[in-house]
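Quick one before lunch.
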Amino acid sequence: MKLLTPVKIGGLELRNRVVMPAMHLGYCRDGFVTPRLVEFYRARAKGGVGLIIVGGCSIDEHSFGTMIKLDDDKYIPGLAKLTGAVHEEGGRIAAQLFHPGRYAYSFLAGIQPVAPSAVASRITGQKPREMTVTEIKNTVENFARAADRAKKAGFDAVEIIASAGYLVSQFLSPVTNLREDEYGGDFERRMKFGLEVAARVRDAVGPEYPVLFRVSGNEFVAGGNTLREAAAFCARLEDAGVDAFNVTGGWHESVIPQITMAVPRGAYTYLARGIREAVRVPVVACNRINDPLLAEEILQNGNADLNGMARAMIADPDLVSKAAGGRFNEIRKCIGCNQGCLDAVFTMQPVGCLVNPEAGREYEGEIRPAAQVKKVLVVGGGPAGMEAARVAAGRGHDVTLWEKNDRLGGQLVRAAVPPGRKEFAAFVEYLVSEMARLGVKVELGRNADEHDILDFGADAVIVATGAVPAELPVAGADGPNVAQAWDILDGRASSGRRVVVVGGGAVGCETAAYLARKGTIDAETLYFLAVNGAEDWERLRELATKGAKEVTLVEMRKSVGADIGMTSRWIILQELRRYGVRVITGARVNAINGRGVLVEHDGEEKLIEADTVLMAVGSRPVSELCERIKEKLPEVYMAGDAVAPRNALDAVRQGYLAGAVL
Ligand code: SF4
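Model of the iron/sulfur cluster complex:
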């Protein structure tokens, strides 16, 4: 594979073309490197990645404690431990130099954010203070000083972040740079800050030391820079001595999703290609590249020279070594859910991973083989049960899994049904494949009762029997026009033209959006009509967004989607609007009848007419089995929704722990 061949960035040779781009992890303490951070990256280096970029690393006081800091020499010894660990494993490591500008949170940094102009941030809602020319020049120097410290700490390269809406990109963009002095106005003057940073960093580190820039190929912000300006900026940076470009998509405030699972794999590779056509140095493609075979295709198509795979490396630190060994089925692919990583970043929690419960816990040591092989029975083949079976079998136990349905996956199968959510199914495929490889004996359609389990003679039983939909105690809830949202997603029920979904949590929102899209044209048809010029863009958009059903979502609370992570919620709300779902909040359901749903809203009772009413009012655990067997067997554990309904991240983690404790 070309992906696994060496490549040079400046004078630095990388063992392959896989880059792990910088991601905030939240593992530092007061800016100092911790064993948690060191062991996290050591594992990725050991797994074969070519270049690790860490950060963002703060260059001045606009930072907070869980970031990696490079604004003082006192951080160098700790950083040297980090670079040393990566080097011991044969890897290379770069530091990303970071200034948030108007994206900083004053409550974290303790000072007002600064920016080229006083344009309020759509992320924080805060208004920054306009930088003086003296402050601008000091900030350029701070970038240079931080680069020098990085070099002293043993980093093999530095990267300057000029993407995602952070300070350098704020200077470049006409949306956020309203200055009329030497640092603002026309494009030439808006480039000046970034070019000065590049030049001073180059002076600080010397001519041979690799310097990368991370750029947005398109800001995807109204009135902002597009690929044309990005390419022109990169060409000027190359002249200033930049050795490679790491190309991502838009800004954090863009309303076009950048990295959730709704983004097709490798969708923004065309941006890397656009930059590559403008420069002669290597270009890294990024965003939703979670598979080495896709990464290889990107290289073979000439769209990039390297691939950035950040979350893919969180999900599977051994991705490169598995690819090198031809063990593609064993790769645990990132599914773009953000539940363990970016949602954690935005709530100031340390990063974990839905599909890899060990991520961020490498410092706790590797999971041990079982001291004594046990006969283990797992009851329930949802995410918690499958993960428990995988881990237990991987440790050498003799594992059998019983699932009452005729398929594995539980809630993940349902979650994968709405368009743009199919990556959940990829995780199911991985678990199924791993269980088979590790010798788990799976029996489908096995509806176990207490006697079956006792007769089986297991040394240990893991009960992962999941949950069932909760019921709403209102008149008419058992009527013929009422079904569970789960039944729609399972394909066990159908719906009429007018649908009311009761319950605006994740399941209700997803089901409403799913049904509202029914009758729109699919991606293949859209592509066919577009490339043949059959319809104009406006009509195509209408065909792709106007479905055949009238869908209403009713929620008792003031907002919908409250249980969806921050990085995905806005996208689902956007989908509800886009596909014309009528959302009614603050409405209490009083009854359901043959004509629809009677709700109390704004102090009045109203009828929302419906042919079908779908219930999505939560779930309740199925735990009775555990209660019946726990006194009769030596080792009984519970995991997942059987304990209490929870999200997939927690369910998988519980399954992992159950498999690890045996
Ligand atoms: Fe990928 Fe989800 Fe893991 Fe984040 S939590 S790395 S998005 S699988």
